[in-house]
Amino acid sequence: MPEVEVNGTRLFYQQAGEGPDVVMVHAVTSNQAVWVLSGLPDALATDFRVTTYDMRGHGASARPPRGYTSAVMAEDFRQLHAALGLKPALLVGHSFGGVVSMHAAAFAPECVAGVLLSDSFFPGLKHIEPNFGKMTIWNDLRETFAQVGVELGDTVDFARLFRETAALAPDKLKQLEDIYGVFGRGWLRQLPKLAETTCGEEVLTEAGLTAEVLAGISRPVVALYDEFSPFLATSRWLEQHLPRCVAEIIPAAKHLAMFDNTAGFTEAVQRHLKRLAV
Predict the structure, then answer these.
(1) Do residues 73 and 79 make contact, with C-beta atoms less than 8 angstroms apart?
(2) Phi-psi sector, 250: left (phi>0), alpha (psi -120 to 50), beta
(3) How many Å apart are CA 4 and CA 53, to the nearest integer?
(4) What is the pLDDT of residues 99-136, one digit of tens each?
(5) Architecture field, domain 3-130+204-277
(6) Dihedral of the alpha carbons of 145, 130, 245, 277, in degrees to the nearest 10
C-alpha cells in the first residue's frame, strides 16, 4: 500500500477506479479492511475514484500517542486530500468515521462535495441519545469478553476496552481470537496498540463539533442509520436541522450495515452517491 505523511503522521491508503472522488472513512478500532472485505470499494470503483485509508493509530498507519479527536482527524483528511490532489470528495463515513467526515464538511468544506454517514454518534448531540453508553454492539462485546473473564462494564468505554485487551494473558487472547475468527483477529490485535494512546478518551469528546456547528453544515448529507441502531434520534435530528440532509434506514442492521445487510447498504450507498455526483 502507498503511504503519505500528513499532519505529522504517516497514513496508508489505497485507490481504485476513475471518476468523481469518493473517500471512505472507517470507525474507531477498525481500518480500511472493513471496506475492502465488504466489497463496497470495488462496487463503487466502476463509477468513482475511491480512496480508502487507515486513520492515525489504526491499521498500517502510524500510531502517535495523542491526537484522536474528530478535529485532528478531520485535519488529517484535509491534508490527505491535498497531498493526493483530490477534487472535492464525497465522504463515506462509518460510525466515528462519519463524525470525522462531518467535521471536515464543517471546517474544510472546500474539500467536501457531500457526506454519506453510516450510524454515527455525535458527542455534540449526546443530549438526545441518553442510551448511547448501552448500545447493542457494546453489550455483544461485553458478553464475548466475559467468556474469558474480562468485565468491560455496562457502558461504552473504549479506554477500558483497550487496557483490558492489552492486559490479556496469551491464552485468553488466543481464546478471543478463536471466537472472533479470521476477520475479528485483525480487529482484536489492534486494540492493545490503542491502549498506548489517548484514543479511548479523545474520540468521545465534542472537539468543537457542536450541535450548532452541525446544523450549519451546508454540504449535502445522507444519514444512513441501521434499523436497530441506538442512534435513531440522531438520524431524525440531522434530517430536521440540516438544510440539505436526507435520512434513510438500512433494514436488518444494528451498527455494521456493510456486513449485517451488505446488499441493502451497498445499493443505498451507490444510489445516493450517484445522485450527489450529478
Answers:
(1) no
(2) beta
(3) 10
(4) 999 999 999 999 999 999 999 999 999 999 877 767 77
(5) 3-Layer(aba) Sandwich (3.40)
(6) -10
